[in-house]
Amino acid sequence: MRVSTLLVASAAGVMAQDASGPLTGSRGNATVTHNNPANFTYVAILPSSAFAAGAFPEGGNFVGGVWAEAGPGGVGVTYRVNISHPPSTGGPFMYHVHTHPVPPNGNCSGALGHLDPYDRKDQPPCDSNLKETCQVGDLSGKYGDISSDPYSATYHDLYSSTDPNSESFIGNRSIVVHFANTTRITCANFTVAELTLTPANRTTTAPTGTRTGSGAGSPSNEPSSRVTVSAASGHSAGAAALGVGALGVLAAMVLAL
C-alpha cells in the first residue's frame, strides 16, 4: 500500500509539472559562468529612432542603454541599465539579450530570439526566484521590467558571460526592448570598450535607485565593433554628471562617435 501511494503521488507531481510547462531547458539549468575576462565593458546604446514607429508618434525613442562587465572575481556579469523616455502606453517594457546582432538596416527582427543556450524557450514565464531555470538572455524576466521613467538598475547575473568561448557570451549579441505584448520597439548591438583605467582611477559608481540580484544558433564570437577608451582627467566631470562612473564616460564617448 505504501509503495502504491508513493507511485500515485509521484505521478501526480509529474502531471502537475507537465501542466505548467517545463521549469528549465532541455539541456538543464543554466550554470554559473567563471573566468569572465575583466577590463572590458560591453555597451548597448539605444538609437535615436525606434524600430516600431508607432511607439513614438512624434518621433524619438527610449534614451540610454545597457552596460555589462565581468562580475567580481570573474563570476557572472554585472549589468547596469539606465533607460528613460519610454512610450506613453504599452508598458511595462521587457528587455532581453538576443542571439544575433542587429543588422545594418536596424531591423530588430534580425536579432532573432532570446539568448537561450539551454533551450528553455520563452514559455512558461521566467520565475525570478529560480533564475537558473530562466533563459540566460531574459534579463527583465529575472530582474524586472522597465516600469519607471527614468529606469535604473544594477544587478549581478551569474549566468551571463563575457568570455567569447562561452555559449552564454553576450558580447556579439544585442539588446531588444519590447512592449508588454512582446512587440519589438527598439534594439542595439553590444560594442566592447577596452578599459585602460588604473584601479585607483576607475570608478564603478552605481546608478541611483539600483538593486542587486543573483544570478538558436549563434553568430561568430566576435564583438560587432570595438572601441578602445583611454582614461583622461577631463572625463571625471562627465562621469559624475551621468551618474554611472566610468561606464557613463563610455556611453558618452560611444554616442559621440
TrEMBL record:
Cellular compartments per GO CC: extracellular region
Major localization listed first in the record, in broad terms: other
Biased composition (Low complexity): 201-220
Enzyme class: oxidoreductase
Catalysed transformations (reactions): 2 superoxide + 2 H(+) = H2O2 + O2
Transmembrane segments: none
Keywords from the UniProt entry: Antioxidant, Secreted, Signal
GO molecular function annotation: metal ion binding; superoxide dismutase activity
Enzyme nomenclature, EC number: 1.15.1.1
Protein family membership: Belongs to the Cu-Zn superoxide dismutase family.
Protein name per its UniProtKB record: superoxide dismutase
Species: Sporothrix brasiliensis 5110
